[in-house]
Design brief:
single chain; about 325 residues; MetI-like fold; globular; disordered N terminus
Amino acid sequence: MAEAEAAVETLDEVTLGARHSPLGLAFRRLLRKKIAVLALAFIAVFYFCGLFAPLVAPRSYTAQDLDHVFQGPSLAHPLGTDSLGRDVLSRVIWASRTTVIVTVATLVTGGLVLSVSLGLLAGYLGGKVDTAIMRVGDVFFGLPGLPMLILINATLKPRVVEQAWIKTLQDWLRVDGLADYILIFGSLSLFAWVGGARVIRSQILALRETEYVLAARAMGASTWRVIFQHLLPNVSNIIIVGLSASLGAIAGTEIALTWFGVGIHPPTPSFGAMLFEGGSIRTLQAHPQLLLVPGAVVAALIFAFNLLGDALTDVLTPRAR
């Protein structure tokens, strides 16, 4: 019975593949996985709240009510208040914006710009270019990641804050703690590109000797045309899987840095700061919701990222199943 269902599913995919693009077929496969759909829905809600926090959050993250500190859940404050009378629900929503900004910025700079471009160049050009890129990657890969990130953020923070263009850009964008965001995703990008670049390079080394690449080069196609029109589409599935798998690690690292005191600084809200504030023994015993609420959101987010990454691996690389 199971073999018959698998045969029918394979036949359906072949039929759909004749009428739809590979990405469309992959999306249809993803929709068949209920757990992946639930994970994707949670991530979508989380990112929606983060992007539109000023509209979604019932209160500002700086609003204080010292007459109602450590208040339990109520109609006015569904998740209670903290030691300064700030609404916990509002701070969770605003903290999600911090996670969204850091993950998206790191994904674009370290996961796409650096990882993909350097992996493509190293694999296709080879020789000295490959050696130089990979040796630099070995240096970053050999360094202890979290201690180096703590050191970079702790030592460079005063210099970055004093930059005039940072202050001008912060006033123009109206984003508090812009220097913290730039420093965190910049330092994360330095270490985030190495693993992805290695995987892409290994695939390009095999693809550059295939017939269609040799034919394109024989017809006079430029290096950039071969890379972006012939090689990049054939490693797009690996790139998507790698990016989805790295989102949880990026979010967790940002939270850890803030928990250590070298990430996002007050008054800008962050899950790391909320976990630190609610993690003391006295606070946990008297008001456990101050730790359990942000902890549950963070755990659910990282778990959803992992579920989505596993589902995308099954969908985009079916031979690995």
